[in-house]
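Predict structure. Chain length: 647.
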Amino acid sequence: MKQHEKPYCDSTTHYSRMNTREVKVGEVGIGGNNPIRVQSMTTADTMDTEKSVEETISLAKVGCEIVRLTAPSKKDAENLREIKRLVREAGYDVPLVADIHFTPNAAEVAAGIVEKVRVNPGNYADKKQFNEYEYTDESYQAELERIRSKFTPLVLLCKQNGVAMRIGTNHGSLSDRILSRYGDTPLGMVESAMEFIRICRDHDYHELVLSMKASNPKVMVQAYRLLVATMLDQGMNYPLHLGVTEAGEAEEGRIKSAVGIGALLEDGIGDTIRVSLTEKAEAEIPVAQKLVARYQNRENHKPFPFTFPNYINPFEYSHRETNKVMNIGGGNVPIVMADFSSKKEIKPANLFGLGYTYSVQLDKWNLTDQACDYIFLNKNTIDFDIPGTLGLVNEYDTWLTQKHKPRTYPFLDAKTYLSDCEKHPQLNFVYTLLADLTEDFAYKLKNDATAVLVIDTYNAHGMAEQRQIFNGLMHYGCKTPVVIGRAYKDLDNESLQVDAGADMGSLFVDGLGDGVFIAAENCGGDKFINEVAFGILQATRTRISKTEYISCPSCGRTLFDLQETTAKIRAKTSHLKGLKIGIMGCIVNGPGEMADADYGYVGTGKGKITLYKEKTVVKKNIPEDDALDELIGLIKEYGDWVEAKGE
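Prediction complete.
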C-alpha cells in the first residue's frame, strides 16, 4: 500500500491551524493569529444604493465580518463609493469587497474605493467559450504576457492604495486556455490562480487571499489541498477563503457546505469562509458561525492512542477497496443505519420516518428512495413483520435471543468479537474505536468474510481519529467494510446538519466509508435524522437518492428571483432521482458549473432564460414565463423524464 507524504496541512493527526500570513481588509485581519472570519454577499443590484446599504448593514448586524458586492461595470464600481459612505455614516465599519468578473476597468475603479477586490482568473483576462486550442510553449507564454499586461495595473493600484485582493478561482469558469493545457481538474484550478499570484509577487504585492471554489465538494477539497501543497513547495503562505459555490438551499446547501468547508477546516486549512445558500444572505451567517465554532479550542484535543502512516491520497479521489458483505462494501452504495436504541416501543408507524410506508389495502411495505437499510435496536426488539429490504441489528446478548428471526444481525464490541463466541454466518457488525485496532484484531478481520466495522470516536478531533482507523486497516491490508458512526446530543436541526456533514462527509470525500450511522439524541425526529444521513451521501456523491440542484446564491448580477425560481423548478422535478439541474442567476459561472449538471437554467437578460444540456446551449433567450415548461420539455426530449408517482 503506497504512503502519501506530500504535505498539504500542518498535521493530519493533531489539529493545528495553518500558519498563514496576515492580510488586512480594512481593520479586519485574515490569516495570521486572527480567528476564522465569516463573510457573505449582498443580493441587491449595486446601482440600487439604498437596498445595497440596507443589506450591508443587515449582514453586519448578524455578525458578517466582511461584505462583498458585485461590480459588473465601471458604473457599479463607482457607486460603491456612495454605498461605503452611507454605511460608514450609519456607524458600521464592516469592510467592503468588490466582486469583479470580465471588467478590469471596474476593478481598477473599485481599488480606489473598497478595502478588497475579488478577481476571478478564469474571466478577468480570458474568455470561456468551450473551445479547444493547441498551444506551443511560445504561444502559451505569449498569452501569459497578455494577461500580465491586463492584470498589472490592478496589482499596482491595490499596492498603492493598501487594498487587499482575493484571487478566486472557480471550477466552473476555468478559461479555455487553462482547460486546453490542464483539463477540467484541480490542477487546472491551482495553475489558474498561480499565474495571477506570480504576477503579484513580481510586483512585491502580497496582500492576497486565495480561493478554489467548486459546486462539487470533492473537487473543491482536492483543489484547496493541492493549492496548499503548491504554496508550501514554493515558500508561500497566503490565507485561504473557503466556500462551496452553488451549494443550493435548505438541507442540501447546508450539508454540502459543511462537507466541503468542514473537510478543510478539520485539517486546519482556511482563514475565512462563506456559506453560499440560495436564500437571504443573512441566513448564511449562522451556518458559517456554527462551522467556525467547531474549531475553537480544538488544539486541546486528546492525542490519539496510536497513529499510522497516511495511505489516503488527498489530491485524487479513490474509493477504498473493500470486501462485499451482503449489501455492504464491494461495489454497493453506502448503506444507511438508523438508530432506534432509545425507543420505548417500536410500532410499524415508526418506520414511516425511515422511508417505509405500509399499505393496509395491499398488505405490503412500500419504500422511498431514502429508505434506510438497517436499524440499530440495541436491546429493543420488533414483533411485527419488517420490510424485506430492511435489516435489524441487536447488541450481542439480545441478538442471541433474536437470532432465529430473519434479517437480524449482532452488534459486537471488539473484545466479544475476539472471543470464541457464536456469530451470524453472513453478517456481524463490530463496534470499533481506534484503540481496538491492534494487529491481532486486524488479522482476525482479514480472515473474516462476515465482518463489518461500525467505527466511533470520543475524541474532540474525531474525524481525524476515525481517518486513522482507515489508515490502520490499509496498513494491515484489511479490506473489511466500514460504517462511519457518530453520536450527537441536544443539537438543533441546523447544528446537526453542520456537525454530521463536516464529521462524516469529510471522510466520504476521500473515498472512505461503506455506510453511515448517526446516533442522534434529542436532535430532531427520525425522518430528519434519516434525511441528514442520506444528505451527506448525496453531497459526497456516493449515493444519489434525489434530484440535485446546483443553484447559486443571489447577488447583484442575478437576473431573476433565485429562491422563487428554484422552488418552482424543484416542485416539478424533485422526483427525478439522480438528475442534476443547474439554476444560475447569471452567466458568470453558469456554463462551467453546469458542465457538472445534466441540465441548466441560466438568466441571460432581464426576463430571459437560456437552457443548457450539460455545457451546450440548447434554447436561447426564452421568456421567463415559458422557461420552466421548456426545461421540462427538454428533459423529456433527452429521455430523462419520468412521471411522478400518482400522476
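Summary: Residues 137-161 form the longest helix (25 residues).
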